[in-house]
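We were asked to recover a plausible sequence for a given structure. The inputs and outputs are reproduced exactly as logged, with field labels preserved.

PROBLEM: sequence recovery
POSITIONS: 104
GIVEN STRUCTURE:
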């Protein structure tokens, strides 16, 4: 069982995703697209045998920190990212203004 605080997470721009190496040959991923100063998170996946261990949240935190460092606005089309941002007010400044307006 990987420790979610010590995961090896990296950006893989060629595949347009952030990846967490789970140590058993599997990966958790957060897929994205870049467009006009925005990062659009489209899908997050954690292998079923690793669910419920905080891996998705660790991957989301890492990805949002990377977006902040790069000065990108976030469009969370992925329901996991959207729910995470909604539960963490400290991340809501990253939301793209157009997305925020549409969501109300």
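RECOVERED SEQUENCE:
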């Amino acid at each position: 069982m990987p420790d979610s605080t010590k995961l090896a997470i990296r950006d893989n721009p060629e595949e347009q995703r952030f990846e967490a190496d789970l140590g058993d040959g599997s990966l958790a991923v957060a897929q994205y697209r870049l467009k006009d100063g925005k990062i659009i998170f489209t899908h997050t996946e954690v292998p079923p045998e690793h669910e419920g261990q905080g891996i998705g949240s660790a991957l989301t935190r890492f990805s949002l920190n990377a977006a902040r460092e790069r000065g990108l606005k976030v469009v969370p089309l992925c329901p996991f990212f959207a729910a995470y941002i909604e539960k963490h007010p400290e991340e809501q400044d990253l939301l793209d203004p157009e997305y925020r307006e549409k969501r109300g």
